[in-house]
TrEMBL record:
Protein name (Swiss-Prot/TrEMBL): tRNA (guanine-N(1)-)-methyltransferase
Protein's cellular compartments: Cytoplasm
Start and end residues of each tRNA methyltransferase TRMD/TRM10-type domain: 25-247
Catalytic function, reaction form: guanosine(37) in tRNA + S-adenosyl-L-methionine = N(1)-methylguanosine(37) in tRNA + S-adenosyl-L-homocysteine + H(+)
HAMAP family per record: TrmD
Pfam families documented for this protein: tRNA_m1G_MT
Amino-acid positions noted as binding S-adenosyl-L-methionine in the UniProt annotation, renumbered to this chain: 136, 155-160
Gene Ontology molecular function: any one: tRNA (guanine(37)-N1)-methyltransferase activity
Highest taxon of the lineage: Bacteria
Self-association state and partner proteins as the record states: Homodimer.
One Gene Ontology cellular component: cytosol
Phylogenetic classification of the source organism: Bacteria, Bacillati, Cyanobacteriota, Cyanophyceae, Leptolyngbyales
Organism the protein comes from: Leptolyngbya foveolarum
């Protein structure tokens, strides 16, 4: 893996004292498939953020901590049933090998967890200096791993083949909120879900394409009218596409800027 992007494979040899002194938000991923993260975390905005030392990502493979000669990390479930369950010993050993920063969360990727949301990303990006992400496989992880876990997180009400996909989503959503990642920090204030409203329609050149024109108000140069149009579009779009969010927005406290 590309060490220049602060992406390190296997368990880190950073001492706990050195890690605590290191300011970037530290992600520790517990994964049987470290290569899954190579391209996504070395590309685009997230890759540049890691290169700028805004965050660091370290991957630990629990298979390295299996004690039998076959490096077995899963076994059949007690009580019978289909599939295999990830064993607790390698996961415990992998996590216990990591440095412990003062504000650490250990997060299990599981369909039983709290669904990811923008408020969750905001909390995790500001309240912690270390996030340990456990990526499950097969039929899940041994329930005793829950004694290590401080939070369970889900991508949604569906089943995926592995926990690496939601873990990558979580990392992406958090890193882009860290100071210095997005060039214009103010742009984060106007994104979808920041105020329980979806984003307004976006247009660029040409002004007309195949009979579809950019709304005149956006070409008017009247910033007040543009802001009013955009807010109205946000409200209408949210009401049509996400009535659940629209209801939540209606019930939330409003400032003058929240009205078209």
């Amino acid at each position: 893996m590309d060490s220049s992007a602060q992406l390190s494979d296997q368990h880190s040899d950073i001492s706990p004292l050195d890690a605590i002194a290191h300011s970037p938000l530290r992600f520790d991923i517990i994964s049987l498939f470290p290569d899954f993260f190579t391209s996504p975390l070395n590309s685009g905005l997230i890759g540049r953020a890691l290169q700028k030392d805004i965050a660091s990502v370290h991957i630990t493979n629990p298979r390295d901590f299996a004690t039998d000669k076959h490096h077995k990390v899963d076994d059949i479930p007690y009580g019978g049933g289909v599939g295999m369950v990830m064993k607790p010993e390698p996961i415990f050993a992998a996590i216990e090998s990591l440095p412990v920063l003062p504000n650490r969360a250990v997060i299990l990727m599981t369909p039983q967890g709290e669904t990811m949301s923008q408020p969750m990303f905001q909390t995790l990006s500001t309240q912690y200096d270390q996030l340990v992400l456990i990526c499950g496989h097969y039929e899940g992880v041994d329930e005793r791993v829950s004694h290590l876990v401080t939070q369970e997180v889900s991508l949604g009400d569906f089943v995926l083949t592995c926990g690496e996909i939601p873990a990558l989503t979580l990392i992406n959503g958090i890193i882009r909120l860290l100071p210095g990642t997005v060039g214009k920090a103010d742009s984060l204030k106007y994104e979808s879900f920041q105020s329980d409203l979806l984003d307004y329609p976006q247009y660029t050149r040409p002004a007309e394409f195949r009979g579809w024109s950019v709304p005149d108000v956006l070409k008017s140069g009247d910033h007040g009218a543009i802001a009013q149009w955009r807010k109205q579009q946000q409200i209408e779009r949210t009401q049509q596409r996400r009535p659940d969010l629209y209801q939540r927005w209606q019930q939330s406290p409003k400032s003058p800027a929240d009205h078209p």
